[in-house]
């Protein structure tokens, strides 16, 4: 499985537009999935302080992470400091896992499509 096409949208680097009605809109980005999908799966992930996760990937699924808190991740053998509001888009085959961070982390995860047993463990 080829990985390495992960995208990271840093919240503090995105321009916000103020609307006359008081709304603030931030255009985050577009990702071409290159596949037809019939479903998507939402989950909320909570990581306690100093949590680490084994490196894994997904054979056919994309994952979109929205971070409500700071986090540290290794993705495709590179370390990323993630900030509140950042979005990570993982493509099939992207190797990833949480690294130890001295805070709790809440993440909204969207998997497209939802495929049972799609996980590939790179570390045991």
Task: Explain this structure.
The chain is an all-beta fold and 124 residues long. Strands 1-9-6-11-4 form a 5-stranded antiparallel beta sheet, with no helix packed on it. Strands 8-7-10 form a 3-stranded antiparallel beta sheet, with no helix packed on it. A two-stranded antiparallel sheet has the order 2-3. Strand 2 and strand 3 form a beta hairpin. The protein is built from no helices and 12 strands. It has strands at residues 7-9, 16-18, 24-26, 41-47, 56-58, 62-67, 71-75, 78-82, 87-90, 96-98, 105-112, 119-121. The chain is globular. It starts with 6 loop residues before the first strand and ends with a strand. The relative contact order is 0.34.
- In N-to-C order, the SSE pattern is EEEEEEEEEEEE
Number of helix segments?
0
Judging from the principal axes of the Cα atoms, what is the shape? Answer: globular
Overall pLDDT score? 90
Give the % helix: under 10%
Distance between the termini: 18 Å
Main-sheet strand order equals: 1-9-6-11-4
Summarize the SSE layout with pairings:
Layout: E1 7-9, E2 16-18, E3 24-26, E4 41-47, E5 56-58, E6 62-67, E7 71-75, E8 78-82, E9 87-90, E10 96-98, E11 105-112, E12 119-121
Antiparallel strand pairs: 1-9, 2-3, 4-11, 5-12, 6-9, 6-11, 7-8, 7-10
């Amino acid at each position: 499985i080829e990985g390495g096409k992960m995208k990271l949208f840093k919240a503090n680097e995105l321009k916000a537009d103020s609307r006359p009605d008081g709304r603030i809109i931030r255009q985050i980005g577009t990702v071409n999935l290159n596949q037809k999908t019939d479903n998507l799966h939402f989950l909320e992930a909570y990581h306690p302080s100093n949590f680490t996760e084994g490196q894994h990937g997904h054979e056919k699924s994309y994952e979109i992470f929205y971070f409500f808190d700071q986090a540290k991740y290794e993705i495709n053998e590179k370390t990323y400091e993630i900030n509140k509001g950042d979005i990570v888009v993982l493509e099939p085959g992207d190797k990833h896992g949480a690294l130890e961070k001295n805070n709790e982390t809440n993440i909204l995860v969207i998997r497209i499509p939802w495929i049972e047993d799609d996980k590939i463990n790179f570390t045991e």
